[in-house]
C-alpha cells in the first residue's frame, strides 16, 4: 500500500476517533467523517464497506497501536520487571492518547464488541498478546495459575480504572501511586 493511501486511511481513522469522542457512534455519520478527514465520502467506502466495518477496523487499529507501544519491552528484563513495565506503559499510553482510550471504552460497551467476538478471533484485536504474556508467567511458575479473565480483569481493569480516575480528576496521577497500585496487583498474582 502506498504512503498516500496509508495517510488517507489514517486520516479517516483519526477523524473518526475525534468525532466519535465528541458525538458518539450514532451521532457520527460517514459524511461528517469524510468532511473532517478532507476526503470524499466515496473514498471512505473505497476502504470500508460500511460504518460498522470502519468502526471495527478502527478498534483493531487502536489495539495494534496500543500493543506496539506497551509490548515494546527491553530484552533481558525479568518477568516481574516486564509485568510492571507493560502495565505502566499502558497507563502512560492511555493518559497520553485519551481519544483512543475513550473510543476503546465505548467500543467494549457497544454491540460492536459483540460483533467482533462472534466473527473474529482474539488475534484480530490483540487479546492474544496479553494472553501469551500471562501464560508465560503461569508456565514458568512465576504467577498463579488462574483464568485469563481473572488476570485481565485485575491487570487491565486496574489500569483503565486508574486512567478514568485521573481523567475525571478524582485522583492526581503520581509515580508513587502507580508504583503502589502495580505492586498490589503483583502481590495478588505472584506465586507465594
Automatic annotation (TrEMBL):
<dbReference type="Pfam" id="PF00440">
    <property type="entry name" value="TetR_N"/>
</dbReference>
<feature type="domain" description="HTH tetR-type">
    <location>
        <begin position="6"/>
        <end position="66"/>
    </location>
</feature>
<feature type="DNA-binding region" description="H-T-H motif">
    <location>
        <begin position="29"/>
        <end position="48"/>
    </location>
</feature>
<dbReference type="InterPro" id="IPR036271">
    <property type="entry name" value="Tet_transcr_reg_TetR-rel_C_sf"/>
</dbReference>
<protein>
    <submittedName>
        <fullName>TetR/AcrR family transcriptional regulator</fullName>
    </submittedName>
</protein>
<dbReference type="InterPro" id="IPR009057">
    <property type="entry name" value="Homeodomain-like_sf"/>
</dbReference>
<dbReference type="InterPro" id="IPR054422">
    <property type="entry name" value="TetR-like_HI_0893_C"/>
</dbReference>
<keyword id="KW-0238">DNA-binding</keyword>
<dbReference type="InterPro" id="IPR050624">
    <property type="entry name" value="HTH-type_Tx_Regulator"/>
</dbReference>
<dbReference type="InterPro" id="IPR001647">
    <property type="entry name" value="HTH_TetR"/>
</dbReference>
<dbReference type="Pfam" id="PF22604">
    <property type="entry name" value="TetR_HI_0893_C"/>
</dbReference>
